[in-house]
């Protein structure tokens, strides 16, 4: 119904003693995005952040992280296969040899890190692989709603004008159909939403 009315464009509507010409135009929708996101939580890797800045070489820091997570107090993460450390961001990715070893760290986001008889708190989180699929922007026009423009000022109140617009656009002889909702938004415009 909305498409048929916008294709016709100009409509003459009787508002009691007045006749007004209105234009039916499509209602544009805001751009949206559709996508699928697959998240796979690693059973062997963890992300570590808030690593303290210490005056030691990067390879020493890697060794200290490996030793600390190998000897975890929560039962042991197990043998560490690899430590990827970034001193700039003070983060690391720890890879364990045993599958499922990273699950030990899921319950506690804070983890103790002992260096030179001091205890620091590291932030630990799951390491996830993200895969984005079917990323599609979309936009268009409403299939059920039209915007009527050019409603001239008349003496009737808003409710009467809304009623007369509804009567006109419900008639099949005028190209209309059953109306779900009508909203008179200003002195010159109204939105009409059809059921069909």
Task: Tell me what you see in this structure.
This is NMI protein. With 196 residues, the chain is of the alpha+beta class. It has two domains: 1-32 and 138-194, no CATH class; 36-132, RRM (RNA recognition motif) domain (Alpha-Beta Plaits, 2-Layer Sandwich), CATH 3.30.70. The chain has helices at residues 2-8, 58-70, 158-170; strands spanning 10-15, 18-49, 80-86, 91-96, 110-115, 118-149, 179-184, 189-194. Strands 1, 2, 3, 4, 5, 6, 7 and 8 form an eight-stranded antiparallel beta sheet that branches. The longest helix is centred in the first third of the chain and has 13 residues, at 58-70. The radius of gyration is 33 Å and the shape is rod-shaped. The chain starts with a helix and ends with a strand.
Q: TL;DR?
A:
The chain has 196 residues and is of the alpha+beta class. The chain has three helices and eight strands.
Sequence-ordered SSE layout with sheet pairings:
Layout (H helix, E strand, L loop, with lengths): L1 H7 L1 E6 L2 E32 L8 H13 L9 E7 L4 E6 L13 E6 L2 E32 L8 H13 L8 E6 L4 E6 L2
Antiparallel strand pairs: 1-2, 2-4, 2-6, 3-4, 5-6, 6-8, 7-8
Protein name: NMI protein
Organism: Tyrannus savana
Pfam family, one: NID
């Amino acid at each position: 119904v909305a498409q048929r009315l916008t294709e016709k464009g100009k409509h003459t509507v009787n508002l009691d003693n007045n006749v007004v010409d209105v234009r039916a135009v499509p209602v544009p929708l805001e751009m949206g995005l559709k996508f699928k996101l697959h998240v796979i939580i690693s059973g062997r890797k963890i992300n570590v952040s808030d690593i303290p800045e210490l005056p030691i070489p990067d390879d020493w820091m890697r060794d200290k992280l490996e030793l600390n997570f190998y000897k975890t107090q929560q039962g042991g993460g197990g043998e560490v296969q690899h430590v990827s450390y970034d001193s700039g961001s003070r983060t690391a990715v720890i890879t364990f040899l045993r599958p499922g070893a990273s699950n030990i760290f899921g319950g506690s986001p804070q983890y103790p890190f002992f260096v030179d008889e001091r205890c620091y708190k590291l932030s630990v989180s799951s390491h996830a692989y993200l895969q984005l699929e079917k990323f599609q922007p979309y936009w268009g026009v409403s299939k059920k709603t039209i915007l009527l423009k050019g409603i001239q000022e008349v003496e009737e109140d808003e409710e009467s004008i809304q009623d007369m617009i509804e009567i006109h656009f419900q008639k099949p002889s005028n190209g209309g159909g059953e109306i779900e909702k009508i909203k008179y938004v200003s002195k010159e415009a109204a939105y009409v939403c059809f059921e069909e």
